[in-house]
Each structure stands twice: as structure tokens, then as C-alpha cells.
């Protein structure tokens, strides 16, 4: 499509009442790519629990409240339709399929960027928070920071890899667990969780114990978990994990839920030398990790690390795993009009896997 064929207006879903679950479709003016930017015609966006955190202003760590009119979303896939000035040397071109992830643009010069941790850029722009996100038909992006989508990978299936996929891939690389080790995944049936089970069990070869509500049992086991523990069916999940691990506990725990209760006893699942990887972002009033007492940490040589999405290199690697079919998102597709209902379902913990919005 040449730029002359582009419509003057297009559709976006915005948060019209931040602090509550409410979205509205608006018509926006077609933006013009500036120097170094590309304009992308998005076809799909995944819906991540972090979008809900931003919409509800639910995170204590958010520096500023989300404003009404914010276009959310950070798992976008579409085609480049226009290149801005000064993009002659860009590695992408018009017609190419690319992805947008949580970090929409980076400074390239801060300590995090220089260390290859661009997802933690000190002055990065976040897609869907003070930067228009992917719940819209067109979006601007720096030409050099889009993620190419491999040929043969369906756009709807690719979208959730741009946040859920890369986040769990990166978190597992930080888990310090080897093939054959036990890994507990909290929130194993969610958007991040079901992909984490797949990466952990299939790509790395961990022995996965998935924990979630019993309604998620099928998706967790079919994603490759060796065992499933339903939090609503098991009085003492820590004791259940000990029993499944010869009384010793797991080598690593991934916390992939915003639920404070999951964090509270996350350290209790660990064996000597084990590591908790914090990924889920607690909402409202976080509670302390119960056993994170210095004495327990010392006696069992435990570690707690945090993990923010993943680098651009990890995003490319993640999409390769998806293109080869090692991991695959389980998703259902909804229209833009359905976003409010999707967030309501998400808040009630009813979504297994991911919901992807068809933006056409
Ligand atoms: N650190 C990062 O870079 C990063 C990136 C993406 C998402 N996140 C965060 O990760 C979390 C998960 O995101 P998602 O999109 O997968 O959410 P989701 O809503 O799709 O999945 C969360 C899952 O947790 C389950 N759950 C709820 N309470 C639980 C409990 N007590 N124990 C075990 N499981 C429980 C739910 O049933 C659900 O299956 C959110 O907090 C999100 O903001 C962090
Ligand atoms: Zn996300
Ligand atoms: Zn930076």
C-alpha cells in the first residue's frame, strides 16, 4: 500500500476512565512518521495483564497515573506501510511484517542499554503507557527497534510472543535451573504461564510443576507440565511440591501472576540454593514475601531476582522458537469492541492462555 492510499482516520481503543475497567473505540488522525520512524498497519494485538495494571493504575511502581485517552497494548503485529525521513539505512522496509513490544523505544546510551538490557532502558518509552500502544490500527515506531516477524509464523499467534513469550524466555534464562531440574510455575495457565511451561519443559527440559486455579489444569498439562497443582483444590501447595520433589523442593520458582498470595510463599517452594524469579507485578497493596527473612535466605542460600520483559535479541530468539513450533500460543481472537469484556474476564482469572485482538 502506498502512503497515498492511507486513510485519514483510523480506529483505536482507548482507556476512557483509567482506574476502572472501561475502554472505548475512538477515531484518530493518521500520524506521519518522523525522522527515523516507520508507520505500521497493525493487524493483531495480544492483551497482557500488564495492560490491565496500567489501565487500573494498580501498580505502586507506576511513576504517573495513566491518562484518559491512552491507547494501551504492547503485543502488536502488522506491516510497515510508510517510512519516515532518514530511514534509508534501516534494516526494515515497506511491506515487512514487524512486531511492537513493551519497550517501544530506547535511548541506546544508558547503563542498561549498553549492557544489552534494553528492556530496562532508564528513559525507554513504554508502549501503551504515555506512548500510544497496539490497541489501534496504526502505530509509529523507531525503524531500528521493531522486531521482525519470521515468515510462516501466523500474526495472531506471533503477537503474544512479543511480551508473554519473550518475558518468560528471559525469566527462564535467569532461573539458574538446568535440564532435569524441578521448576515451579505460579500462574501456569495464564498468558505468560502457559508459554513458560512450554519453554521450560520443551525447549530446556525442566520438570515443570504448574500451579494455578483448577480450571487451568488442561492448558497447563497440555503445555508440557509434569504435574499440576490446583490452588483451590490443595490446602498446602508447598507440601505438595515437596512431595513431588523427593522432599527437597524446586530448583527454581517463576512467579507469573499479579496475585499477592502467590508471592507470599514463593520462597517456601525452593530447595537449597534455589532461586525465585519475580515477573508478575503485584497489584494494589503488595504483601511481603513471607519467608524472605534473612535467616532463611542465609541457611538455604536462596536467591530472589527480578526480570523485566526481555531484550531485543531475546525477542528475536523467542520468535524463532515459535516459528519452529517448539512453543505455540493458545489463544482466542476477539474484535476491538470486546476489549472491556476481555479485561473483566482477565480480572476474574477466567482466561486460559491469551486473547488476541483482530484489529482489522
Ligand atoms: N516482568 C515483566 O516484564 C512482565 C511482563 C509481562 C507481564 N508481567 C506480569 O506478569 C503477570 C502475569 O501476566 P499474564 O498476562 O500472564 O496474566 P494472566 O491474567 O493471563 O495470567 C495470570 C494467571 O495467574 C493465575 N493466578 C491467580 N492467582 C494465582 C495464585 N494465587 N497462584 C497461582 N496462580 C494464580 C490466574 O488464574 C491466571 O491463570 C502480571 O502481573 C503481569 O503484569 C510482567
Ligand atoms: Zn505484557
Ligand atoms: Zn537506555
TrEMBL record:
GO terms for cellular component: cytoplasm. Keywords: Metal-binding, NAD, Oxidoreductase, Zinc. Residues 19-357 form the Enoyl reductase (ER) domain. It holds the Pfam family ADH_N. It comes from the Eukaryota. One of its GO terms (molecular function) is metal ion binding. Gene3D superfamilies: Medium-chain alcohol dehydrogenases, catalytic domain, NAD(P)-binding Rossmann-like Domain. SMART domains: PKS_ER. InterPro entries: ADH-like_C (IPR013149), ADH-like_N (IPR013154), ER (IPR020843), GroES-like_sf (IPR011032), NAD(P)-bd_dom_sf (IPR036291). Its cofactor is Zn(2+). CDD domains: CAD3. PANTHER family: ALCOHOL DEHYDROGENASE 1-RELATED, ALCOHOL DEHYDROGENASE 2. Belongs to the zinc-containing alcohol dehydrogenase family. This is Enoyl reductase (ER) domain-containing protein. It comes from Periconia digitata.
Amino acid at each position: 500500500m502506498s502512503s497515498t492510499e492511507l486513510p485519514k482516520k483510523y480506529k483505536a481503543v482507548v482507556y476512557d476512565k483509567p482506574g476502572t475497567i472501561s475502554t472505548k473505540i475512538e477515531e484518530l488522525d493518521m500520524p506521519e512518521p518522523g525522522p527515523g520512524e516507520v508507520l505500521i498497519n497493525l493487524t493483531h494485538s495480544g492483551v497482557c495483564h500488564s495492560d490491565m495494571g496500567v489501565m487500573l493504575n494498580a501498580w505502586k511502581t507506576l511513576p504517573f497515573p495513566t491518562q484518559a485517552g491512552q491507547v494501551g497494548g504492547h503485543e502488536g503485529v502488522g506491516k510497515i506501510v510508510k517510512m519516515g525521513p532518514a530511514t534509508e539505512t534501516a534494516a526494515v522496509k515497506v511491506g515487512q511484517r514487524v512486531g511492537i513490544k513493551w519497550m517501544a523505544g530506547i535511548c541506546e546510551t544508558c547503563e542498561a542499554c549498553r549492557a544489552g538490557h534494553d528492556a530496562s532502558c532508564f528513559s525507554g518509552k513504554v508502549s501503551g503507557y504515555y506512548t500510544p500502544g497496539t490497541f489501534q490500527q496504526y502505530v509509529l515506531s523507531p525503524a531500528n527497534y521493531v522486531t521482525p516477524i519470521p515468515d510462516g509464523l501466523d500474526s495472531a499467534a506471533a503477537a503474544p510472543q512479543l511480551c508473554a513469550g519473550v518475558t518468560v524466555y528471559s525469566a527462564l534464562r535467569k532461573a539458574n535451573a538446568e535440564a532435569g531440574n524441578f521448576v515451579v510455575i505460579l500462574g501456569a495457565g495464564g498468558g505468560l504461564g502457559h508459554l513458560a511451561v512450554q519453554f521450560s519443559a520443551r525447549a530446556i527440559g525442566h520438570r515443570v510443576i504448574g500451579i494455578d486455579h483448577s480450571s487451568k489444569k488442561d492448558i497447563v498439562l497440555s503445555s508440557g507440565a509434569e504435574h499440576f497443582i490446583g490452588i483451590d483444590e490443595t490446602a498446602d501447595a508447598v507440601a505438595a511440591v515437596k512431595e513431588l520433589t523427593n522432599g527437597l523442593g524446586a530448583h527454581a520458582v517463576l512467579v507469573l501472576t499479579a496475585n499477592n498470595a502467590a508471592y507470599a510463599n514463593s520462597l517456601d517452594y525452593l530447595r537449597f540454593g534455589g532461586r525465585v524469579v519475580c515477573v508478575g507485578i503485584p497489584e494494589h497493596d503488595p504483601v511481603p514475601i513471607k519467608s524472605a527473612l534473612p535467616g532463611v535466605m542465609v541457611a538455604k542460600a536462596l536467591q530472589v531476582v527480578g526480570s523485566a520483559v526481555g531484550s531485543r535479541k531475546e525477542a528475536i530468539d523467542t520468535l524463532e522458537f515459535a516459528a519452529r513450533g517448539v512453543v505455540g500460543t493458545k489463544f482466542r481472537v476477539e474484535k476491538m469492541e470486546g476489549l472491556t469484556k476481555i479485561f473483566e474476564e482477565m480480572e476474574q482469572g477466567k482466561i486460559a492462555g491469551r486473547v488476541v485482538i483482530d484489529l482489522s
